[in-house]
Specification:
The complex is a heterotrimer of chains A (about 250), B (about 350) and C (about 290). Chain A has ten helices and ten strands. Chain A is α/β, with parallel strands linked by helices. Chain A has one domain: 3-Layer(aba) Sandwich (Rossmann fold), CATH 3.40.50.300. In chain A, the strands form two sheets. A six-stranded mixed β-sheet of chain A has the order 6-7-8-3-9-10, sandwiched between helices. Chain A has a four-stranded antiparallel β-sheet with strand order 2-1-4-5, covered by helices on one side. In chain A, helix 3 (about 105-110) packs parallel to helix 6 (about 150-160). Chain B is mainly α. Chain B has a domain at about 5-245. Chain B is about 75% helix and about 5% strand. In chain B, the strands form two sheets. Chain B has a two-stranded antiparallel ribbon. In chain B, a hairpin with a 2-residue loop joins strand 3 and strand 4 (about 295). Chain C has one domain (about 5-215). Chain C is about 70% helix and about 5% strand. In chain C, the strands form two sheets. Chain C has a two-stranded antiparallel sheet. In chain C, strand 2 and strand 3 form a beta hairpin. In chain C, helix 1 runs parallel beside helix 5, helix 3 (about 55-80) packs across helix 8 (about 180-210) and helix 9 crosses helix 10 (about 235-255). Classes of the chains: A alpha/beta (about 250), B mainly alpha (about 350), C mainly alpha (about 290). Chains in contact: A-C, B-C. At the B-C interface, helix 7, helix 13 and helix 15 of B face helix 4, helix 9 and helix 11 of C.
Chain lengths: ~250, ~350, ~290
Amino acid sequence: MMHAAPQQASTRLGIVNLRAAYGSITALQGVSVSLAGGEVVAVIGPNGAGKSTLLRCIAGLEPVQGGGIAVDGVSIVGRSPEQRVADGLSLVPEGRHIFCTLTVAENLQLGTTTRRDGRAACDEDLARVLEFFPILSERYRQRAGQLSGGEQQMLAIGRALMAKPKLLLLDEPSLGLAPLVVRVVYDAIAMLRAAGLGILVVEQSVRQALRCADRAYVLRTGRVVREGRAAELLAASDLEGSYFGASA
Amino acid sequence: MKPPSEAAFTTTAVLIGALTLLALGAAFATPYLQRVVTEALIYVVMVVGLQVFVGNSGIVSFGHVSFMVIGAYVSALFTLPIEKKLELLSLPNSVLQLHAPTPLAAAVAAAATGLFALLAGLPIVRLRGVAPSMALFALLVISHVGAQNWKAVTGGRQAMVGLPLATTPWTALGCAAVAIIAAAVYQASRRGALLRCARESEVAAESIGINIAAERLFALVLSAMLCALGGVLFAHFLGTLGPNTFYLDTTFLTLAMLVVGGMRSVSGAVTGVLVLSAASETFRYLEQGITVFGRDLEAPNGLQEVALALIMLTILILRPAGICGATEVGTLLSRLHKGRRDTAAQTRS
Amino acid sequence: MNSLQTLVDAVNLGAVYALAAIGVGVIFGVMRLINFAHGELISAAAFTAYLLEGQPVWMRVAGALTASFVMALLMERIAFRSIRKASAATLLITSFALSYLLQHLIVLVFGARPLGVSLLPQLSESVRAGELRIPWLELATISSTALILGALLLFFHRSRLGVAMRAAAEDFTMARLVGVRSDRIIAAGFGISGLLAACIGLYLVIQSGTVSYRMGVDIVLVAFVATVVGGMGSLGGAALGGFLVGVTSIALQAFLPESWRPYRDAFLFGLFLAFLILRPGGLMQPRHRREWV
């Protein structure tokens, strides 16, 4: 869809030993995560584990105290959030954050801010996004604030896609949405994976995330305590243990 | 670590001690310097008053000058010679006949202003964001217009002349001491701590049950009373009082002093007054022309204000916390003392 | 007192205040900064027109527009950029200090007394229609403001930069996350603010024939009132607020009993206070205030 052919499974996003702190409180203590094109990686863990901090660091909203973040092998540490969008990262933050006073059309148009490949290419992608999320087509000229929660989530993802990203970061995409809507969102994620996008999903809803993902990392108090293939983690009986710290 | 009240005691003692030395020094100096020191001490009262509210609540107030105005005019009602009052004002005779010695008038003025602040402040302290600052600004404009036009009570644009010159370096020092003690006690108190919680995060403070509006109102009223005292002192220092005695220039100067010294500490307020008073005097002197190595230098008029503004902007951009930041003298001294004790203990062992 | 005359006066003043309010509102939208120094942007234009006296009109106007535009950009770059992340209190005081500095720099260079200046004196003449005497200036102001408002509307709804600015005003962080360059947005906001300030400066020069270091102060106070009344963060609201304040001002002037007229400003600020207390969001509350807690 977005890309002509599925990408090779090479690492597109490499995070090595990331450390982040708020004053004297360490939020991330040496986290390493990798993400390849055409795969969905889930980051799960209890509240306060540092999942959101991880995404915010990748997006450039938080400074990092140590470690590296690289896209396609090129370090992006020190680059501003705007620059990282141009580098191929698109974050859909928790709570969607669509521009309510702007129309759906304007929201989507804003997604192309960093693109340099011309009007025609952007229009093509717009057509594809509208095909992907038909409800946005219906509400194209309406103010985004009038959309329902699920529709807003789709708009947020569509807007992120309009930047033609290599990597999509989703922070709690299912938060506050009805189960049926969550399914639609995850179906969309699956389709995007098929198109070659690398997708990092941070989720509280463990089962849903693990069902959709290829691999997963379990984060607890700023550390990766478990990682592996999602299917294995899903079947693991001691997953709750990792979650809540009963096992080592 | 020392309990907050002990550090506050040290702070108060040091600050009042320093100002006392200043007043003593002035007593042996020229009358001009005495006036300079008196004026500085009056500003201490005003800026410490400002600090009580701005420092603890985090709300920038452009309106505190209105409290100075009200305080000054209320006291003038009692201290202006009766013939002048009959000439200038049009109030019922019984009111015009009221007369009181200046200290009593000052107390009444402070109380009246406190009441005004209580009433006006009730709706203002509930506002969020920049709204309270703008509301206080509106208060300033309204009090200015009132002072200019309410001829019956204030005499209108015509300045009141003939106020008793009751402000001496010692009365100003006394009031400065009162202000510093009040500010330090409030800061060390539980109420002050609660307000500072709200300053850090309104959401968090509310969630633990702090009545933000009430705490702000308390600080506002205390602050207003101190500013009113400052206004009374200033009016009885100049001997005249008009609607333009306190307006935008005073607003700027007192804010500048607070910002440069450090909004969050009483020591900062006092430091700011001393630093900017000294700077102001220096530029005033330069404006009159000096001779350096036989060459006459004269600074152009208006340099003083420009220099003041530049100092304030430099601090805001480079060191927004001000010279003292949030550190009180008492805290600093106790840290040094502890440091010395620790090294002594180390060398002993 | 001819009520049609009063109406035109009211619309004229409303137009001027609307422009002032938008000038202040634009910067508040992108930076959450209330720019006290906006008055000095107005003065910059006016003093440029004064300095270029004797030159052709187009040059004086162009000079005024350029001066305010450049000054606004400099203001942003030098004074406000490094404190962008500071608290609202620091931003407020900084703009206040900057305003004071610029005012007294003007005093340093030009002195404290108002200076006479003549620009397009023909506009002070009036067109007569029966009992009405309407100065050409008022007609020019009303029509120019309408044009400017139209241009702004087109800009904010049809241009990429304009849409990006609206997005940034609603949710600055999210705008950055879609790639909107924060530097560009803020500079654009200041630039627009400067151009609008220049319009007001030119108006004041033509209308009063004088320039002084304090000429911007009164209008800027009104602009704050208007922005609050209209709803901070909403430009349409700012324009509406400015318009209402202008109309109310004239109405108070016309209908207040003689003895109360000097209190007009007190009334205005009393209304402002009431608005702040009763409807702090303003007339046109931006529907969503996105907080990144």
